[in-house]
Amino acid sequence: MVDHPEYRFKECLRDKYLYQTVTEPTRHRHGQNSNILDLVITNDENFVKDIAYSIHLGASDHVSLLVTIEGEPKLNSDTTMRRNFYKGDYNAFREDLSQVD
Fold it and tell me: How many helices (H) and strands (E) does the chain have?
């Protein structure tokens, strides 16, 4: 069904060339159908080497996932300084500017 949220979500992943790699149910609740609720989404279908589905942690109804990835982490070598405008003291800035003729 085209209007179903699951269908639209899968279409969105395909449109962006993304892959959802969890294939087995990750949530098991007594009296209900098991569902895949925990997702591992990547832009390279070969990036995830293995997913191990483990036991529940505590009272959770979700299984634990151990995800093994292929490749080396990429370190950000960009050392360009960037201003964080969210931390600006704009009230002090206005006060300083109000003193300028």
Answer: 2, 4
| Of 71, 72, 69, 24, the residue nearest 50 (C-alpha) | 69
pTM of the complete model: 0.59
Look at 86 and 76; give whichever has higher pLDDT: 86
Residue 2 within a domain: yes
Instruction: State which amino acid sits at residue 42.
Output: T
Domain extent for 23? 1-71
Judge whether 83 lies within some domain.
Answer: no
Distance CA 90, CA 83 (A): 14
Q: Which residues contact 88 (CB under 8 A, 6 or more apart)?
A: none
Per-residue pLDDT reduced to its tens digit, 60-73: 888 899 999 988 77
